[in-house]
Design brief:
By secondary structure, the protein is an alpha/beta fold. The protein contains eleven helices and twelve strands. About 50% of the residues are buried.
């Protein structure tokens, strides 16, 4: 089998590519010219250059491939010009799916996000059936992923696109080069730059477990269905305490009110716009999301795909060690754009 992986130089995409190569799959990696290819070092894969905004390049990229893993996304919680997120995540996804239909790709695994799912009002874990609507989506990233998933589901219904949808929760672990917003939180905490926290929670999963979930979705997933690829639910305080334990720092004890964090975020974004460079230390969308406990359960993936996950503490430990070994904990704040073709 030959499979095309989009976003192959990125965090989740490179983990998926490693898993496929390890399973003996012949892999082609879709990358933009000039992309940072550190995550592909030493991996046996063919590079195919293209861009989600260029349909001709996508037709060439999927040529001769029986499988498509569409992992690429623009994962940013703040952008001065949000149109780019929609071009990549929504229009780019539709362009690629149409190319896959024309090339008669036999199976597509589309990487969505738990960001598209509804949340339980009482904070209990949600699943694939928890209702959600575009109006529920906070911020451009979540809205773009919701619309992109709808594009895929419509093409499944109307055009017979052989797609399975996976919804990773909050992956962490090796290979988060940029890093992503979740990875940046780990870096900031491990570097002692998070003296306080807000009362929120995430579902934390090891990126390598998410990668295995992609392969299982290809092998066992039902077309048109979506599967949460998650791990363990943890409060932000628990996450920060675990990071502090690993690096030998005191854990933050001050809990900030959400309204204070929101005010700080508005000020930080205003400063970033005036300065014209860099990302704010806090974002409005991030502050608004922090009011929610984003807890999820992966029972459907466990039952239908045979999916499983290691403890969240191991995912955190692997992420901290990877960042520490590469000097991230000694640097200043980095960017968090995770955009790839």
């Amino acid at each position: 089998m030959r499979a095309l992986v989009t976003g192959a130089s990125g965090f989740i995409g490179s983990a998926v590519l490693r898993r496929l190569v390890g399973a003996g799959v012949e892999v082609a990696a879709l990358v933009r010219r000039g992309s940072d290819l550190r995550n592909l070092d030493g991996l046996a894969c063919e590079l195919r250059h293209g861009d989600l905004a260029d349909p001709a390049s996508l037709a060439a990229a999927v040529s001769g491939c029986e499988a498509l893993f569409h992992v690429a996304a623009d994962y940013r919680l703040w952008v001065p010009e949000p149109e780019g997120i929609y071009r990549t995540n929504v229009e780019g996804t539709r362009n690629l799916m149409i190319a896959a239909l024309a090339a008669r790709v036999s199976r597509v695994v589309y990487t969505s996000s738990v960001a598209t799912l509804g949340l339980m009002a009482d904070g209990s874990p949600a699943d694939e059936t928890t209702p959600s609507a575009l109006a529920d989506m906070i911020g451009h990233y979540k809205r773009s992923k919701f619309l992109a998933e709808e594009e895929v589901r419509e093409l499944v219904r109307k055009e017979g696109l052989p797609a399975v949808i996976v919804n990773p929760s909050a992956p962490i672990g090796p290979g988060d080069v940029r890093p992503t917003p979740t990875g940046r939180m780990i870096v900031e905490a491990a570097s002692g730059r998070m003296p306080a926290y807000v009362d929120t929670g995430l579902n934390v999963v090891h990126v390598d477990d998410v990668a295995l979930g992609h392969l299982l979705a290809y092998e066992r997933g039902r077309v048109g269905e979506r599967y949460i690829l998650g791990g363990d639910d943890m409060s932000l305080r628990q996450i920060l305490e675990e990071v502090a334990r690993l690096v030998g720092r005191p854990a933050p004890r001050v809990r900030l009110p959400h309204n204070l964090v929101l005010a700080i975020a508005y000020a930080a974004e205003a400063f970033a716009r005036i300065a014209g460079r860099g990302e704010p230390i806090a974002t409005v969308d991030g502050a608004r999301l922090a009011k929610k406990f984003m807890y999820f359960k992966s029972d459907k993936a466990k039952r239908e795909l045979g999916y499983g996950w290691r403890p969240a503490a191991q995912a955190i430990a692997d992420a901290v060690e990877w960042f520490r070994a590469r000097g991230y904990l000694e640097r200043g704040r980095g960017g968090s754009r995770a955009s790839s073709p």
